[in-house]
Specification:
Largest sheet: none
Order of helices and strands: HHHHH
Helix content: over 70%
Number of strands: 0
Radius of gyration: 13 Å
Distance between the termini: 11 Å
Strand content: under 5%
Number of domains: 1
Shape: globular
């Protein structure tokens, strides 16, 4: 099974797809922040991939959300390729 086939079925992909839809939505960045850094997205992501860490610029909502999302995308791809 290829990386793509594994990734398409993974709970990580489902979380990242949900996060992407939030980011691309018309919601305010504060709302996006609250949704991304919730039990449903970032906490579940960290439960699935407990070694995940990222640099939090701690500046504004959009920078924080995008920093988490970009790091999560990179980390998930790296983790899946290692398997």
């Amino acid at each position: 099974m290829s990386f793509y086939e594994i990734y398409q079925k993974s709970p990580v992909k489902l979380l990242l797809d949900k996060a992407r839809k939030i980011i691309e939505s018309d919601k305010s960045w504060e709302e996006k922040y609250d949704l991304i850094f919730s039990e449903e997205i970032s906490k579940k992501f960290s439960e699935i991939l407990p070694s995940f860490e990222y640099y939090d610029p701690d500046s504004n909502y959009d920078d924080d959300v995008l920093a988490w999302y970009n790091a999560a995308m990179y980390f998930a791809k790296y983790e899946q390729e290692e398997k």
